[in-house]
Amino acid sequence: MQSKTPRVEFTREMKKDYTIITPNMAPIHFELIKNVLESFGYHVALLRTTGREIVDEGLKYVHNDTCYPALLSIGQLMHALHSGDYDLHKVALIMTQTGGGCRASNYIHLLRKALKKDGLEFIPVISLNLSGLESNSGFKLTVPMLRRAIAALTYGDLLMLLKNQTRPYEVNAGESDALVEKWIKELTGLFEGGKAFTQREVREHFDRIAASFAAVPVRRIEKPKVGVVGEIYVKYSPLANNGLEDFLFAQGCETMVPGILAFMIFKVDNRLEDIRLYGGNPAKKQLCTLLKWYFTKFEADLIAAVKKYPQFTAPAPYTHLKELAGQVIGYGCKMGEGWLLTAEMMELIESGYRNVVCTQPFGCLPNHIVGKGMIRKVKNIYPQANIVPIDYDPSATKVNQENRIKLMLAVATG
Amino acid sequence: MMRIGMDVGSTTLKCVVFDEHDKPVFKAYERHFSQIAEKASGMLRNISQQFPKLKTAQVCISGSAGMGLAEDLGVPFVQEVYATRTAVLKYQPEADVVIELGGEDAKILFLSGSMEVRMNGSCAGGTGAFIDQMATLLSITPEELNTLAGRSQRTYSIASRCGVFAKSDIQALLNQGAQKDDVALSILNAVVSQTIAGLAQGREIAGNVVYLGGPLTFLSELRAAFDRTLKTTGVCPENSLYYVAAGAALNPTAEVFDVAELTERIRRYSSSHRYQSSEALFDNEDQYREFVARHEKDAIPTDGELGKSKKAYVGVDAGSTTVKAVLINENEEIVFSRYLPNSGNPVPLVRAFLQDVYARFPDVQLVSGASTGYGEEIIQNAFGLEIGVVETIAHFTAAKKFRPQVDFIIDIGGQDIKCFKIKNGAIDNIFLNEACSSGCGSFLQTFAGALGYEMADFARAGLFADSPVDLGSRCTVFMNSSVKQAQKDGASIENISAGLSMSVVKNALYKVIRVTDAKSLGDHIVVQGGTFLNDAVLRAFEKEIGKDVTRPSISGLMGAYGAALYAKENGRGTGHILTAQELEHFTHEVRSVTCNGCQNHCRLTVNTFANGARYIAGNRCDRPLKKHSPTAAYNLYAYKHELLEAYRPGENRRGVIGIPMGLNLFELYPFWHTFFTQLGFRVVHSPESDRQLYDKGQHTIPSDTVCYPAKLMHGHMEALLEMHPDAIFYPCMSYNVDEHMGDNHYNCPVVAYYPEVLDANIAALQHTRFIYDYVGIHRRHDFPVKMQAILAKYFDPIPKAEVKAAAAAAYREYEAHMERIRQKGREYLLYAQSNDLPVIVLSGRPYHLDREVNHGIDKLICECGAVVVTEDSVSGLAGKRFPTTVLNQWTYHARLYSAAKYVAESGDKRINLVQLVSFGCGVDAITGDEVRSILENGGRIYTQIKIDEITNLGAVRIRLRSLFAALGLGN
């Protein structure tokens, strides 16, 4: 039920020599996913571009009141197309589509509008979704690909987690970052060889990864612990959050950024929750039940691997997050990050990260509810909580954002 | 050892020195005009001079503009709120709450109980800067504003959300003749309201309140305004300006420095060129000379002869910040003109102009006259001008004189940006800046003032800047912090000036017109408005669009010139412009009264002139004017109100249920009323929204950027709580009814989940039965089962059969209700057709029915002579589902697309669509573009009106009148 003019499909022929340009979000995760796609024969260019020009391109092509993530990812893609680095008749673009009730489901259409404005509507845009919203003959999410992708995301979560907990204390600066690089390389090699994605293999590599980070020489000193939650893009993307993780690191903090896996479980669990709340036949959602089960196994393994080392803080399982959320908000609240965002704040505070930066694009609708809207309830339960909501948009300046975060840190250490 | 604390704020620099016994021995306060290094080193030198024995001291820096300085110099930095806290704990140990207003920040510290600090968010506008800006608008100093406020008799409500909004409210008040005293106090009240709404976020401000910072120190009336609102008496301690500096000095992280050496390092400090810069405006002098020569060609004389006939025509443009007046002769040459700053009241200025005209040309015969601009009506009434012409038409008329083939006009005035495309000799598309993105003349002026410059000098300074700061394109409030950042990065005044000129241009192009390709605006572009008299702005514009444009030498007078031309063309000589003698005895009296014509209780300003002419302003409808529009009775908004009023509370068998009348309940009230009444509940609803209701709930709003309809819900809940029903019912609903017009049938996240926010932030709800469960009315067969279980949590069990029957009745009633609306819509359309009347499909959401949300725009349209129907009354007429270029996944928004399609395909140019968009509605960023493209594909004009708390209908009126003018449907 979309455009009159037929959508430009990404065909099988295109797969051979087209480059799929991908906007970035979570750098570690996306690097791994990119490598998975390449191992299936796609040519992928993952954008690592930064700078004001990206924002300007976004402002030019996207309605300025649209959320910042749309503006940036589309800006980043348009910037790439204008860079002269690509043959415009040999590229395709890719965009995720969640299908939820927030604006994010419309990013792909905004991207197509941007292309049209520029006379580039011949460039195919691939929707990356699990809801069956759009399909392409040349790009199929096959089960083996999906399995590797899920494994890749989970590895990403683990690497991010351990890096964040090791880097602030490392004796030899740069060692943790180098370790992340090393693992991305090694895992990519394994993926290419068709390895490292079954549950048994994953468990084994989880252990090796955890052991390797545990072996990094550290000097444990007391540092303020800061958790980061928020709208998924702004939360992970350094481009959007003005290098938040690095800023916190430079301020002498240890950071915890909850992973993507919980978000994936959340999204499939929502389908089941809908049935519970409004009725319907659970048999129709068997795929969701299956996926949830599959994700949860990965989650359990990740937690187990981290827990072997008492110096590391493991994330809480999804079931626990859900329990926490239940104290303050309904499970029907599912648009955007939904109740999961609130739960993540609570879980962070519980596990010692009482200082929380709640990131959101300026004017993000779900965050009015689950972010700023819930802070009061969260504080009632955890009086020690020190939460600062930060808005990100094309003109919110770094100096203002950093000033607010510094205020939070002053309270944290005072 | 002595301790030095320095507070580098956004506009001022403060310094405090403590001796070995923690006794303050030195303090200094100075505006720094962004020359931070110079001023700071100067201040340190003063200290050294006063204390010759001082060699080393412990130093710490604080303040929003001090972070970069401290980092680069390796001096310890402490966050300013934290520094305040340190000082308050030492000097005001009894304090419970600290309210500190600074140049651009507002902060509240809660000290007793769980310690909390709050700072204004990035949207919340400045405070000190805001007051400065408002004072500038009134042509007085902030201190004078304080004095005026002390004499105030009454106050007006002014939008407090951000400076720009407040500004347009104030402008309207001034133009309507409100007293400056009252406006002054209203401004201070707006600051109070802003601080409490934006920062307290549900936490009560009680106990010992301490006021700190510049504005609260200098403005006694501001303190009084806080006292009144908080029902307390706060203290503003001695040295209230120095708390941050003192806190910095006392901070344990302070480190020892050699004072002389540090002074020298600060003096030499400049963080050169680390900001994002753009290309210089001119590469060299020659380029500038060529540019000047080219534009000199568009000069016309302004001192023509009156001519033998002595016939002349008057044009007045009473704009937001300036008044322009022009006299033209029979040959359409300018004979005499005036360009004056509008210091609040245009009437005496125009009187002086006309008196000058009579003095210079005693035998002049004023044939006709026209006025335009914000003050159009008051000037027209006061001086007997024949015609009032909408600004857009006035400007177009003038532009044609310079470039007959003109196809694009952009006018950047003091407060607005107006752009229009011309096609086939008629205005084809209009762009006006929304209240939130004004980055216009007054914007440059305010910055020039803040940096200590005259406007013209400031703009000129940027002409030869080598690397202008790239400030992007956003509203004034945001720009404040961008400039702050640039200052921090060491940008020179020249480069900031050039950057601001560029940002004015970018703002107009990318925010207002929203061009993707600046080169496609048109081939014959005329630029006008006072702002373009600045060469820097003109050059920036030409550079950005890559084309040469025409700037008439009378750029600033174009509105008045156009009005005069219009009067000459269209005047029938029926007006009577006051004679010299009448002007001599001219009087102007202003009286304020409250209209009791309807429940709006508008505050009217009644202007009475010597000749008995009256002009009433401040009204939302025609009632006090005692004139009637032929279409007043054909307003579907009014009909929908009638329908809702018909649902009266029934008998009470099971209890009383209270429902807040807001958001989606405007549509679902018939459903829930029927459902609960059938079950034996007595159903009542909260009263209609108004400003008082909003104020009542304001203190519990956690997110100051959520839309106004959502914010109003807080007031509705407070009102319901006062009614003490047995339960309050307001369900969460991810899904809306499925009308099969789109790909899905969601509610937007705010409509879907706002009850969660209410429960989390209104403490009193914990002591009442608040039913806000997740309900799915989209699943008709599951609904009764699920609902029965939900009700069982709160009431004695209700038999399934009863719930089922009630649900069936509810669905029936809802459908009947919607059908009544559709039926009435068809009836109105038919009426319009048979009487040849224009129709406006005033499209929005069900909750735009709320009069506090729509500000009576429906009535305004009726006054213009059009029939008003709603989007939901015509959306069914567009036929089945049709393809859209966006994911059509929200029920309410699908109606917008269908309504647009209906209009586009109606084939009837008299039927047009106006879309109401609530400020902050993220979803409408998507729907707006789509509705526009559906309409434009059908060759129709798209009009969007952004609404918020604002009550200024002036801009809306211009839009609507321009639309009707563009359509050739009356003036």
- Chain pair with largest interface: A-B, 80 and 87 residues
What composes the largest sheet of chain B? 6 strands, mixed
CATH topology of the domain at 224-259 and 315-413 in chain A: Rossmann fold
Characterize the overall form of chain A: globular
Could you state the oligomeric state of the chains shown?
A: heterodimer
Please tell me the CATH architecture of the domain at 224-259 and 315-413 in chain A by its name.
3-Layer(aba) Sandwich
Give the overall pLDDT of chain B as a whole number: 86
Secondary structural class of chain B: alpha/beta
Low-confidence stretches of chain B: none
Gross geometry of chain B:
globular
Separation, N- and C-terminal Cα atoms of chain B: 76 Å
Structure description:
The complex is a heterodimer of chains A (414) and B (971). With 414 residues, chain A is an alpha/beta fold. Chain A is 52% helix and 10% strand. Chain A has helices at 12-17, 27-39, 52-61, 68-82, 107-117, 143-166, 175-192, 199-214, 232-236, 244-250, 261-278, 286-307, 318-326, 338-350, 365-370, 375-381, 398-413, and strands at 19-22, 43-46, 91-96, 125-128, 225-230, 254-256, 355-361, 386-392. In chain A, the strands form two sheets. Chain A has a four-stranded parallel sheet with strand order 2-1-3-4, sandwiched between helices. Chain A is globular, with a radius of gyration of 21 Å. Chain B is built from 35 helices and 30 strands. In chain B, strands 1, 2, 3, 4, 5 and 10 form a six-stranded mixed sheet that branches. In chain B, helix 2 (67-73) links the parallel strand 4 and strand 5. The longest helix of chain B has 36 residues, at 800-835. Chain B is globular and about 95 Å long.
Question: What is the topological layout?
Answer:
The complex is a heterodimer of chains A (414) and B (971).
Chain A: H1 12-17, E1 19-22, H2 27-39, E2 43-46, H3 52-61, H4 68-82, E3 91-96, H5 107-117, E4 125-128, H6 143-166, H7 175-192, H8 199-214, E5 225-230, H9 232-236, H10 244-250, E6 254-256, H11 261-278, H12 286-307, H13 318-326, H14 338-350, E7 355-361, H15 365-370, H16 375-381, E8 386-392, H17 398-413
Helix pairs in contact in A: 2-6, 2-7, 3-4, 6-7, 6-8, 6-12, 8-12, 11-12, 13-14
Chain B: E1 3-8, E2 12-18, E3 24-31, H1 36-50, E4 56-62, H2 67-73, E5 77-78, H3 80-91, E6 97-101, E7 106-110, E8 116-119, H4 128-137, H5 142-150, H6 163-175, H7 180-200, E9 209-212, H8 214-218, H9 220-230, H10 243-249, E10 255-258, H11 259-268, H12 285-296, E11 311-318, E12 322-328, E13 334-341, H13 346-360, E14 365-372, H14 376-383, E15 387-388, H15 391-402, E16 408-412, E17 417-423, E18 426-432, H16 441-450, H17 455-461, H18 476-488, H19 493-512, E19 525-528, H20 535-545, H21 558-570, H22 580-584, E20 588-594, E21 603-609, E22 614-617, H23 636-645, E23 655-659, H24 665-678, E24 681-685, H25 691-697, H26 708-723, E25 727-729, H27 749-761, E26 770-771, H28 783-792, H29 800-835, E27 839-843, H30 851-854, H31 857-863, E28 867-870, H32 871-874, H33 891-905, E29 911-918, H34 923-937, E30 943-947, H35 954-966
Parallel strand pairs in B: 1-4, 4-5, 6-9, 11-14, 14-15, 16-19, 23-24, 23-25, 25-26, 27-28, 27-29, 29-30
Antiparallel strand pairs in B: 1-2, 2-3, 4-10, 6-7, 7-8, 11-12, 12-13, 16-17, 17-18, 20-21, 21-22
Helix pairs in contact in B: 1-11, 3-10, 4-6, 4-7, 5-7, 6-7, 7-9, 13-14, 15-21, 16-19, 17-19, 19-20, 23-29, 24-29, 25-26, 26-27, 28-29, 33-34
